[in-house]
Amino acid sequence: MEDKLAEMTPPLRVLDVQKLAVGPKKIDVEFTDWEAILSEIIVGDCFGVDRMDYLLRDSHHTGVAYGKFDHFRLIDTLRILPKEHSESEEPSLGVEEGGLQSSEALLLARYFMFSQVYFHPVRRIYDIHLKDFLKEWLCEGFLEADIEQHQSITDNEVLAGISDSAANSSSSGHEHAWRIFYRKHYNLLYQRQPADMLINPDPVSVFYEVLNEEFGEKHVKRDYYTQKGGSTDFPVLRRDGSIVSSLELSDVLNRIPVASVDFIFVDPGKKAEAEEWLVSKKEELLKGG
């Protein structure tokens, strides 16, 4: 998009857009202090407006309360502060002490939205079915790199493609489209259990490998993902004027876990048989038999 950005008045420099869009962690160029702060305001792990927006928006549109927090109070107490215990004097976004609870609420909201909504097994399996469909439906399995052609494929075109492919057994991606269109998605067979991990540290890998051999790779799918980002260490301006790490003041922030999933899904036509088989073999497999 470099040419299009250059045509704007005033022109936009591509590097400036890159800096603000991804931040210093993902682009190896020098940032000024103000560029780092502006980027943190947009995409920062703790207080980026992108994070605040998607939590509140997704919470509203999915009809759940997990993603809600007092964003008005949080924004009112945001401050640009030096990083505590840092050798450099590089500034960072932090909060006044009175905004610490709002910060906790934001990061808890993120954890609950991941664990209850973004990592919901039905949502995850539809991601898999959609990716499998696109790999077969798109030319050579990829979106076009050309901007005009890339922008011509919107949600409308993809949804129409799913509808057409679901109705035509000879179409590319027919099976995946059929599962999406008629809600014949693969069903959850097993998810990682703490009790099983006491016996075997990686039970999902063990079960998945053997299930593939028993029922065929086509009928079994695995999905694993760990929440990224989410630093809970930021400076806090105390009422006495001192600046300390948030982790020194908040027991909550020290205890927020990282959300992760590890699922095994199975073809619904094989689910009953697979469940019975797994129950009979589970203990033996966990113990390495």
Task: Give your account of this protein's structure.
This protein has 289 residues and is an alpha+beta fold. Among the domains are: 2-117, Hypothetical protein af1432 (Orthogonal Bundle); 119-184, no CATH class. The chain has 15 helices and 7 strands. Strand 5 and strand 6 form a beta hairpin. Helix 7 runs antiparallel to helix 10 (174-181), helix 9 (155-167) crosses helix 10 and helix 12 (203-215) crosses helix 15.
Q: Gyration radius, to the nearest Å?
A: 24 Å
CATH architecture of the domain at 2-117: Orthogonal Bundle
CATH topology of the domain at 2-117: Hypothetical protein af1432
Helical fraction equals: 40-55%
Strand/helix succession: HHHHHEEHHHHHEHHEEEHHEH
Strand order of the largest sheet: 1-2-5-6
The CATH superfamily of the domain at 2-117 is known as Hypothetical protein af1432
- Low-confidence stretches are none
Q: How many beta-strand segments? A: 7
Q: What's the N-to-C terminus distance?
A: 57 Å
Assembly of the depicted chains = single chain
Task: Give me the secondary-structure category.
Answer: alpha+beta
Determine the mean pLDDT: 91
Shape: globular
How many helical elements?
Answer: 15
Work out the strand percent: 5-15%
Task: Please describe the biggest sheet, giving its number of strands, its sense, and whether it closes into a barrel.
Answer: 4 strands, mixed
Q: Under the CATH scheme, which class of the domain at 2-117?
A: Mainly Alpha
